[in-house]
């Protein structure tokens, strides 16, 4: 059995970019994610201090890692890249160790 994996990326938006604009800039990313092997779900939130958390659930670590590479290669021209302050990005993908439904 494969272990699910959680991909967590935190960052601040680029100066002047609103959350609404960021979400709109993700339209191509969302469509692409739905087509990726192992994709389960995506959730995005923003704290009061502006830190955005983008959480994706994958069927395995390898699926999450492969898709992360694809975001910067296959979707290199996506408007989402200009919406993020890249100096603030923290990214990880790790096996899920506990699950409650």
Task: Summarize it.
The chain is of the alpha+beta class and 101 residues long.
What does this structure look like?
The chain has 101 residues and is of the alpha+beta class. It has three helices and four strands. It has helices spanning 19-25, 27-34, 61-73, and strands at 5-13, 39-46, 52-58, 84-95. It has a four-stranded antiparallel β-sheet with strand order 2-3-1-4. The model has no long low-confidence stretch (mean pLDDT 95).
Distance between the termini: 18 Å
How do the strands of the widest beta sheet line up side by side? Answer: 2-3-1-4
Radius of gyration: 14 Å
Mean pLDDT: 95
Provide a count of the helices.
3
Into which percentage range does the β-strand content fall? 35-45%
Q: Provide the low-confidence segments as ranges.
A: none
Total number of beta strands:
4
> What would the principal axes of the Cα set say about the shape?
globular
What is the string of helix and strand elements?
EHHEEHE
């Amino acid at each position: 059995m494969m272990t699910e994996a959680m991909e967590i990326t935190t960052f601040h938006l680029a100066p002047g970019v609103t959350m609404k604009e960021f979400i709109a800039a993700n339209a191509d990313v969302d469509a692409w994610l739905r087509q990726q092997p192992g994709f389960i779900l995506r959730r995005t939130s923003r704290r009061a201090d502006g830190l955005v958390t983008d959480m994706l659930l994958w069927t395995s670590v390898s699926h999450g890692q492969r898709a992360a590479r694809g975001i910067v290669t296959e979707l290199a021209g996506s408007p989402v890249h200009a919406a993020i302050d890249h100096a603030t990005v923290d990214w990880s993908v790790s096996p899920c160790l506990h699950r409650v439904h």
